């Protein structure tokens, strides 16, 4: 019988955890006798770590191979390259030692599934990642070509270096290291690697729903986030959700001469910019009715923990090249980024944008906006409220349509969960420092889906850095982070196995003896329970 230590949260005390989207179980004391078992495992892990360090040059070469494939999922012309990346991942899983590897066709890009199940009775870990990447525009801002991996100052520059090829591959390398160095792996492991994350994972959710039994596991591990800073090992235990929309404003049936018609009709570009400007006040508060109705409030402990992190607004501002920072009044920068919702224009276009002059009143104007959400907000509800509000504030002389393009739910996990504690141990062993808990302002919608559909905890062990340039020119990954990340991934497999044993041993050591109670003692116990409840 397999040892399991996962569970579900069934309450949201003090509003700290959103019900239905968090997996949790209380930590248990570790019996002294288990420590001897653990010491032997740590001694064995030195062999695995030595193997990983010996393979650094080869691991780098393999990563460069994958980064050279332009697997841009949003570009239909790159469909062949996306498939080539999927086939590369399939072959790499086979070479690493997976016992079963499959490439699953979808209506879009392929999914790659792999598994190694050589230790029946031990926990099963499901590793998720994505091999597709963002577009590279503007190309002229890249110092080196985006699909020609280039090393500079201990960093590897290429599209996908951090998001997500340089991160999910650490887990493939970790499995291989265990199998090569010891002949086995501490846990069973499955891989689910997709090629459509950057377009909203349209085929992943149906695959999970149809393959729940195949994907059955004890924990999902994802490396697609950043550490708080270099040398500060971090565990991400929460993500903001997302509501992404496109606004289309139409005035006339065609562009008009601004001399002949200027002043006589509403300009859709003017109307759209006025609508967008009205969505926030001067203090950064969003003015959409009902937007904050279900926003989860931060606890005092959370705010203190954010304040304890090594963050300086001045350093943050210089790092992004901003003349000043701005956000919702009454909250710090980290609180705004992690625990408060936001609303931003992501793109806007209309009329003539070429060189020279062309005096027209455009017939249409368009914008893309995104709202980042926190527990207990729902993406569908925020999309509805934004759409309704935008149509309400539009001038009567234009037509407004709103398209919902993408959405995902916020997610939050408790720090005390054994899987997160095991991750902290693994990171400390690899990086030599105690791990800190952080939140991520971005969204990985599939995390909440895994939690809801597979009903297991999710661990976000990212090894990227905040300045990796995700979705921007000159994306990179720090190679020292990457190599230590491989070690951390290998240690994590060991720590998760240990956590399972400790949980099993702890439960067994505290198992109460069954004692038949007489009628009088049962009545006495009931009275005591009532007194405790009424306190």
SS class: alpha+beta
Q: Rg, please?
A: 26 Å
- First and last CA, distance: 41 Å
Amount of beta strand: 15-25%
Q: Report the count of strand segments.
A: 18
Q: How many helical stretches? A: 15
Task: Based on Cα principal axes, name the global outline.
Answer: globular
**Sheet with the most strands?**
6 strands, mixed
Uncertain runs with pLDDT below 50, 5 residues or more? 6-45, 509-535
Q: What is the share of helical residues?
A: 25-40%
Write a short abstract of this structure.
The chain is of the alpha+beta class and 535 residues long. It has 15 helices and 18 strands. It has helices at residues 32-54, 56-67, 79-96, 165-182, 204-210, 258-261, 268-277, 300-308, 313-320, 333-338, 379-393, 418-431, 445-454, 479-509, 519-534, and strands spanning 100-104, 111-116, 124-130, 150-152, 155-157, 188-194, 219-222, 234-239, 241-250, 256-257, 342-350, 360-361, 364-373, 399-408, 411-412, 436-440, 458-460, 476-478.
